[in-house]
Amino acid sequence: MKKLPVGIQSFVGIRTENYYYVDKTSFVKKLVDEGKYFFLSRPRRFGKSLFLDTLRQAFLGRRELFHSLYLENNWDWSVKYPVIYISFGSGVIREKEILLKTFESILREHYEEEQITLTEEIPNRRFFELIKKLYKKYGQKVVVLIDEYDKPILDNIDKIEIAIEIREELKNFYSVLKDADPYLKFVFITGVTKFSKVSLFSGLNNLEDITISPAFATICGYTQKEFETVFADRLEGVDLDEVRRWYNGYSWLGEPVYNPFDILLFLREKIFRPYWFETGTPSFLIKLILEKRLCVPTFENFELGDEIIESFDVDRIYPESLLFQTGYLTIKEVKKRRVMLKYCLGWPNLEVKVSFNNYLLNTFIDLIEKEKNLDRVYEALEKNDLEGLREAFQAFFASIPHDWYRKTELHRYEGFYASIFYAYFAALGLEVKVEDATSHGRLDMAVKFNGRCYLFEFKVVEFEGKGRALEQLKTRHYHEKYAARCEEIYLIGVEFSYRERNIVGFEWEKV
Q1: DSSP 8-state code for residue 252
Q2: β-pair type (340-346, 302-305)
Q3: Angle at 354 between CA 425 and CA 481, to 5 degrees
Q4: For residues 206 and 237, is the Cβ–Cβ distance under 8 A?
Q5: In 10 A of CB 305, how many CB atoms?
Q6: At residue 293, what are phi and psi to the nearest 5 degrees?
Q7: pTM of the model
Q8: What residues contact 262, with CB distance under 8 A and at least 6 apart?
Q9: How sure is the predictor about 419, in pLDDT bands with cuts at 50, 70 and 90?
Q10: Fewer Cβ atoms within 10 Å of its own Cβ: the N or the C terminal residue of the chain?
Q11: How many other C-beta atoms lie within 10 A of the C-beta of residue 427?
């Protein structure tokens, strides 16, 4: 049985030390056959660095590493190219001076290894000089591979002035690629986010973004077939449907894929845990969501256009765009509205849905209190105890510190209260549907549990008056849509007061 390559980003290591490898080398040939400058955005821990190293070894002509892989018999191994490999993945860059030293360190590693002397002093000029001298030394055009191109900016995403300063230095550095075109064979740039071309790659108009190209949808990550084929000897007794529910579902307009980090750790531990989510916390995203007053339940089915899903900038950050690019939301469907494409986004899988909403709840109250309340909500649903459900949510709102309310106006908005209810049900892994369209209007929220359906309507009494929530559920006959789906249906009208900062009405009826 082979070893699981958990955290291994070296193609050489994987191919020489008996690790499993999912063959992605057909994409190497496809890229080189179709163009010269490429950009790919993928969430963290998705295999971007491994793919870049695969490209590097192919251009270096190391055929022995590709034995039995697609590329072995589909590549011209007689030609070898000089490769410049740049990665900003390690360490944290908090200021411009550290970035400049990092530039020099990366360049030094290359020119010392190649025994080349650089005379230019400015970082971007030294970069250009390195490309040109490698071209002259080998008589072949140069390959440039850039990994985590955006990390120095993301390290400072909550400090706009520093982030802009670093962005300008990176822009200056990357601008070399335009003027160096006569000496370049191939350029591949990867990162987590997609900043606008104007802000970072000004002038590089032929940079092709393959992030949401169906032809490259599975360039990183494992498809279901790859998972079941490559790791077949480790799947005895594994519930494949549950693995798919937990970890599959990331989509970029093609076949959905698994995050490799999740799958490798699951195969090692055989325990369903949020392995990928635990490697990073979405604290900055949560802050943005609260600042922009986004209604979290809408993340079940979020609709965006091209202009937001594709790029943003340091001083123009859309949380919706970041949620997609960082992997917390993925493309579920594409629709055409008028002449424009609309992307329907949603949670990729159970791991992200449960973990993200758990983390959101941690923002409001102490972790231990939150866990107790989660248990209370689940137990109330198990017993079909709606009074107990009311008490659990009232206890939650009552436990939010006064200081939190003082700093934000969120408690004035219906979406805040709906988000809390949704976050609890989602954190428990329940089936939740929001803003469900019926012939009589849109139902705020439906929760399915053990054959029972709970239909919720939320109101803020200062805006709507008391008694309106349950009345709306009844008069609009939302339950008719669920009659054939549920053994029992309960209508629950929940009313809040932003002055009381809690639930002031919780009425229900069984249909």
Answers
A1: S
A2: antiparallel
A3: 45
A4: no
A5: 12
A6: 60, 40
A7: 0.91
A8: 246, 247, 275, 276, 351
A9: confident
A10: N
A11: 22
pLDDT band at residue 287 using 50, 70 and 90 as cut-offs: confident
3-state secondary structure at position 223 = coil
Q: What is the DSSP string of 36-67?
A: SEEEEE--TTSSHHHHHHHHHHHHTT-GGGGT
Residue found by looking up tokens 């005895």 in the block: 236
Phi-psi region at 489: left, alpha or beta (left = phi > 0; alpha = psi -120 to 50): beta
Query: Using CA of residue 404, residue 353, residue 329, residue 40, what is the dihedral sign?
Result: positive
Question: Is 64 exposed, middle or buried (CB count within 10 Å of its CB: 0-12, 13-18, 19+)?
Answer: exposed
1-21: average pLDDT: 96
Q: How many residues does the chain have?
A: 511
Beta-carbon count within 10 A of 214 CB: 13
Tokens for 500, please give them: 């009381």
Q: With contact defined as beta carbons under 8 Å apart, do 463 and 498 qualify?
A: no
Residue type, 115: Q
Provide the token pair at 48: 């971007």
Both tokens assigned to 426 = 């989602």
Residue 178 CB neighbour total at 10 angstroms: 16
Spell out the SS3 assignment of 432-474.
Answer: EEEEEEECCEEEEEEEEECCEEEEEEEEEHHHHCCCHHHHHHH
Strand partners, 492: 456, 508
DSSP per-residue codes, 318-384: -HHHHHHHTTSSEEEEEEEETTEEEEEEE--SHHHHHHHHHHHHHTTS-HHHHHHHHHHHHHHHHTT
pLDDT at site 36? 96
Long-range contacts: 233-241, Cβ < 8 Å, 24+? 233/1, 234/1, 234/267, 238/270
Beta-sheet strand order (sheet of 184-191):
83-87, 142-147, 184-191, 37-41, 208-209
